[in-house]
Design brief:
Aminopeptidase, about 170 residues, about 30% strand, globular
Length: about 170
């Protein structure tokens, strides 16, 4: 949770309904949600659940505004921490709510969750022309660490991570 947002851990049933475009009774979607990235993240989450079980806390989170409970996007881990304690993240918000600081707030919440669960390093990337996403990662405390012909890479690392939960 953050000041303005709730990071709601997605369940298998919620992910299945999201992929099918069927809003469940308890969820409230803002207009434009889910976007293609949300559907893709839900599919990846379902694939992980089917192959290795529920990855939570390293799963997919629906981003909901605290003020009205409406889903406006998502943040997710692309899997559990590897043997070195590293995870990769992704995020996205519907266009109508961009530019209000929600993305960096949601990402800071996800980074806090990662750190609380012993993650040593979080990585992300953004296309070269996606300056807004690069700004989101920088605003959340991630720093640029390299680039290739397609994307710019960002990361944040903590030296006080708890090794016992790495690779969990």
């Amino acid at each position: 949770m953050t000041a303005r947002l709730v990071l709601h851990p997605m369940t298998v049933g919620e992910a299945e309904r999201l992929v099918a475009g069927e809003q469940d009774n308890g969820a409230r979607w803002a207009p434009g949600y889910p976007a293609a990235g949300d559907v893709s993240a839900a599919r990846r989450f379902l694939g992980t659940c089917a192959s290795t079980g529920d990855p939570n806390p390293f799963g997919t989170y629906e981003v909901r505004r605290r003020e009205d409970g409406r889903a406006i996007g998502g943040v997710d881990f692309h899997g559990p921490a590897d043997a070195n304690g590293s995870v990769t993240i992704g995020y996205g918000l519907i266009p109508s709510v961009r530019g209000k600081g929600y993305a960096s707030e949601a990402l800071r919440g996800l980074l806090s969750l990662a750190r609380a669960h012993g993650v040593a390093r979080v990585r992300g990337d953004a296309d070269h022309d996606n300056i807004a996403s690069q700004h989101v990662m920088a605003a959340a405390g991630m720093r640029p660490v390299g680039a290739d012909d397609r994307v710019r890479y960002f990361e944040i690392a903590w030296s006080d991570a708890t090794p016992a939960v790495r690779g969990a």
